Structures are given as structure tokens and as C-alpha cells.
């Protein structure tokens, strides 16, 4: 199965621009996403997931350059970090000044990733910037690994589901705390 067509990607980007929520395939699970700079969309997403805003959110993008404005990392260090992307690897970094607290959970760090899944990257590319990426599930329930599981968990919600495949054998992305080198989730 191929990814969304150019027309579908434009429609997805328009939906995000209008404050809409999407569920889309990533490397191992479906992600739930929105425009990270739209506080109303982010709060709707958090309410739908029953997720505490203090947990923070991951941003994904098509390229590392799209993510760099969110991180307070010197250019030479950023280049070394970005060389490891795309990958199923999320990195926690110092947040740039002005990054909204609804993304950081009120901390001075932010989680960023350039995914190794073409559909997720194509959505970001069509949108023109990063999107929120949190597992498509209600807190405490297993993450959705197909569109049927997304529909079951969010049947009554206004979430546009983007078809696609995930690697059902894969685990959710590794999370690394960049400043310390500590692996949060392997």
C-alpha cells in the first residue's frame, strides 16, 4: 500500500491548519497528531487521550531543519544529532526560548524526532512543519497498530484517520535524553 496522494496530503495539511486532529502511521504504532502551535487543537488531543498536559509531547518533522527552532542546541551539535535521523529515535533536548509549555509539559526540554516512516514525514512535509506525535490510544490502553484499532478507541471523536501500515513487530521509538545520554525507553 502506498502513502497518501498529493491531493490527500494537501487535504490533510488543510485539516491540520484548521485545527483538526489526525491519526497516522509511524514506525511501530499509529500516532495522534495536530498543529503543535494551535493550543486549542493540542488541548483537544490531550483531552481525547486523557493525557496530562504535564507529560509533554513529541514533535516529528520531515527534516531536522524543521525541528531545530524548537531546540536550544548549537548548530554544530545539532548537525551531529541530526545525522542519526530519520530513525525511530526520539531525542529529549533543551527547549528553545518561547516553546509553548503545552509541548514541554512545563519543563525546559522538548522531545523531537525525524521518523523513519515515509507517510509521517510526508504529512509534515505537506503541512510545512512539525506535527505532534503521541501514540493513538486513550491513556492506559494499548497503542493502535492499525486503522481499526484507532476507530475502536476514537469512534466518536473528530479524528481524520490516515491509512497506512506500521511494523507490527517493532516497538515504539527509542527515547534518549540527549544532555545526559540516558536511554529513557529502549
Q: What are the main properties of this structure?
A:
186 residues; DHBP synthase; nine-stranded mixed beta sheet; 30% helix; 21% strand
**What is the distance, rounded to the nearest whole angstrom, between the alpha carbons of the first and last residues?**
29 Å
In quaternary terms, these chains amount to single chain
Strand order of the largest sheet: 7-1-2-6-3-5-4-8-9
What is the strand content?
A: 15-25%
Mean pLDDT: 94
Radius of gyration: 15 Å
Count of DSSP-assigned helices: 7
Query: How many E-type strands?
Result: 9
Helix content, binned percent: 25-40%
Give an overview in words.
The chain has 186 residues and is an alpha/beta fold. The protein has a single domain (6-185), classed as DHBP synthase (Alpha-Beta Complex), CATH 3.90.870. The chain is 30% helix and 21% strand. It has 7 helices and 9 strands, in the order αββαβααβαβαβαβββ. It has helices at 6-17, 39-49, 64-67, 75-82, 101-104, 118-127, 147-153; strands at 21-25, 30-33, 58-60, 89-94, 109-113, 131-135, 159-161, 174-177, 182-185.
